[in-house]
């Protein structure tokens, strides 16, 4: 019998990434186990589908302006 891996969400407040350079935020998030990551420009149209373990970054001028789960 095989088991499928269920994605998990790291126990971390996404707000800790706000203000970081996007490359540094992405590096730290991957080390913490966030997957997938989504980097978006302000005002992007996104689906409302919640995906366990995903971290979203709104990036403006190379910095994370907002971060949220799902």
Keywords:
single chain, 24% strand, 3-stranded mixed beta sheet, alpha+beta, 70 residues, 1 helix, globular
Written description of the protein model:
By secondary structure, this protein is an alpha+beta fold. Helices cover 16% and strands 24% of the residues. The chain has one helix at 22-32; strands spanning 37-40, 55-60, 63-69. Strands 1-2-3 form a three-stranded mixed beta sheet, with helices on one face. The longest helix has 11 residues, at 22-32. The mean pLDDT is 91.
| Mean pLDDT across all amino acids | 91
- Strand element count: 3
SS-derived structural category? alpha+beta
Side-by-side strand order of the widest sheet: 1-2-3
Largest sheet: 3 strands, mixed
Indicate the proportion of strand residues.
15-25%
Calculate Rg over CA atoms.
13 Å
Number of helical segments with 4 or more residues: 1
Outline type: globular
């Amino acid at each position: 019998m095989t088991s499928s891996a269920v994605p998990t969400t790291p126990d971390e407040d996404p707000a800790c990434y706000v203000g970081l350079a996007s490359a540094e935020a992405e590096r730290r998030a991957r080390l913490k186990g966030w997957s997938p990551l989504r980097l978006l420009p302000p005002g992007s149209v996104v689906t409302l589908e919640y995906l366990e373990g995903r971290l979203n970054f709104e990036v403006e001028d190379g910095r994370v302006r907002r971060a949220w789960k799902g």
